[in-house]
Amino acid sequence: MLILKSHNMDIHNSLDCKIVRSVGYIKNITKLYGKETTFRWQDDVDKNIAEVKQDNLHNLNIENYMSEDYEIFIDEYLKLCSFLDIPCNVNNVRQFILLMRDKLKRYRLTLP
Q1: 65 Cβ contact partners less than 8 Å away, ≥ 6 residues apart
Q2: How many other CB atoms sit within 10 Å of the CB of residue 65?
Q3: How far apart are CA 2 and CA 90, in angstroms?
Q4: What angle do CA 66, 55, 81 make, to 5 degrees?
Q5: Per-residue pLDDT tens for 20-69?
Q6: Is the pLDDT assigned to residue 6 strictly greater than 70?
Q7: Residue 105 φ then ψ, to 5°
Q8: What is the pLDDT confidence band of residue 91, given thresholds at 50, 70 and 90?
Q9: Are 40 and 5 in contact (CB under 8 A)?
Q10: FRET pair for 24, CA 20 to 30 Å: which of 30, 53, 68, 88?
Q11: Alpha-carbon distance 53 to 55, whole Å?
Q12: Entry pTM
């Protein structure tokens, strides 16, 4: 597995391997509207990252993957597991995501 910088938007054109690319609108996850953030894309945090169609690439919709709605999450998670050809570990992944959502919410509430 190879982890690449998320702000390199066209890395999939130069690599010949399976790539998971996060797409969506990050503000819908963080809800840090108009507040100081610790994200790298402070200037571009309003950016909606569009899907790219390519055989070796999976577009992981981050809004769906981090959704509070279980059905939306499971659909996105199963697509990811199928693309990577890995076994599903739904309970642990779901627990991690809900914990991260809770931490983001607490972080958001402590900002001035």
Answers
A1: 73, 76, 77, 80, 97
A2: 20
A3: 22
A4: 40
A5: 887 887 666 666 555 555 555 445 545 677 787 878 888 889 889 988 89
A6: no
A7: -65, -45
A8: very high
A9: no
A10: 88
A11: 7
A12: 0.73
Which residues does 31 contact at the CB level (< 8 Å), separation at least 6? 104, 108
Domain ranges, ordered by start, for the chain: 11-110
- Tell me how far apart the alpha carbons of residues 96 and 112 are, in angstroms, rounded to a whole number: 27
DSSP 1-56: -----TT-TTGGGT--S-EEEEEEETHHHH--TTS---STTTTTTT-EE-----TT
Arithmetic mean of pLDDT, 70-95 = 94
Contact assessment for residue 21 and residue 12, using Cβ atoms and an 8 Å cutoff? yes
Residue indicated by tokens 């969506």: 24
Q: For helices 90-110 and 70-84, what crossing angle results, to 10°?
A: 120
**Bigger pLDDT: 5 or 73?**
73
